[in-house]
Amino acid sequence: MTGSLTIAGLGPGDPEMTTPEVFAAFADATDIVGYAPYVARVVPRVGLTLHPSGNRVEVERARQALWLASEGRRVVVISSGDPGVFAMASAVFEALEAVPQWHELEIHVLPGITAMLAAAARIGAPLGHDFCAINLSDNLKPWPLIEKRLRLAAEADFAIAMYNPRSANRPDGFARVLELLGEAGCGDRLMAFARAVSTPDEQIRMIKLREARPDMADMRTLVILCNSATRRVGRWIYAPRQVR
Ligand code: SAH
User: Could you tell me the pLDDT band of residue 55, with boundaries at 50, 70 and 90?
Assistant: First the structure.
């Protein structure tokens, strides 16, 4: 048997938002590797081995998947959303880089609907003009870099999609983010808090930045700060295509 490694995104939650290509990869797989809550979203079957693991072990998980593939297994590594957005694809390539004999393995990356796109679709078109995405966790980068990127993105009037806004380990960072964006003159900009999009727990809140409170976000929330031209139309908001 020739082994292969597929890095797949499950989308934001609802299986309707998982692509047919990803389901086809599951049907052909011998092994599924991933963070336990995501592995729980894969329907078990005879001949498919599930390998759930903990939250902060991305590179170990990637190494395990590569090793299984090198042994001839057909392995699918899963992430939520898109696997290339703050997720497993980079961890797999990092593990691959260290072991030259793995470089010739057959590898596929299957895209998924990332949280910011699912969230944006719920509220209208907040990403219809120029935008950027930032991970607010400082697990893998220094906090001053997060502040610098936010300040410059605010100054450039990008819409800003914020992943990992707040967790039990990092209760205070998001309060600082709101303060910083207020100081950067974004108080009147629209802001969306999209929680658990496409799951039964979905909750969407639209306010202005000056009304935002840190406890409006948690680890299941995607936050979008809209650009200054973004406006409401009925119950929707949209970023105009043209900015002068
Ligand atoms: N690869 C994923 C992102 C992983 S980082 C993707 O492309 O979506 C995890 C962060 O993604 C969470 O802290 C949250 O900010 C966001 N997120 C993931 N799923 C979400 C959902 N269903 N609703 C809202 N935010 C979500």
Answer: confident
CB 153 within 8 A of CB 174: no
> Using a 6 Å cutoff on CB, does residue 84 contact ligand 1?
no
SS3 102: helix
Distance CA 195, CA 222 (A): 6
Q: Is the CB of 111 under 6 A from ligand 1?
A: no
pLDDT (tens digit per residue) in 156-191: 999 999 999 998 888 899 999 999 999 999 999 999
Q: Quote the ligand 1 centre to 202 CA distance (angstroms).
A: 12
What average pLDDT does the chain have? 96
Q: Which domain holds residue 224?
A: 116-238
Find tokens 């999009």 and name the residue.
197
Give the separation between CA 198 and CA 195, rounded to whole angstroms: 9
Per the document, the length of the chain is 244
**pLDDT band with cut points at 50, 70 and 90 for residue 243:** confident
Write down the pLDDT at residue 170.
83
Residue of 19, 86, 203 to test ligand 1 pocket, by largest number of atoms within 8 Å of CB: 86
174 and 78 co-located in one domain: no
In a domain, 244, yes or no: no
Specify the pLDDT at position 1: 53
Ligand 1 within 6 A of CB of 82: yes
**Can you give the CATH number for the domain in which 48 is found?**
3.40.1010.10
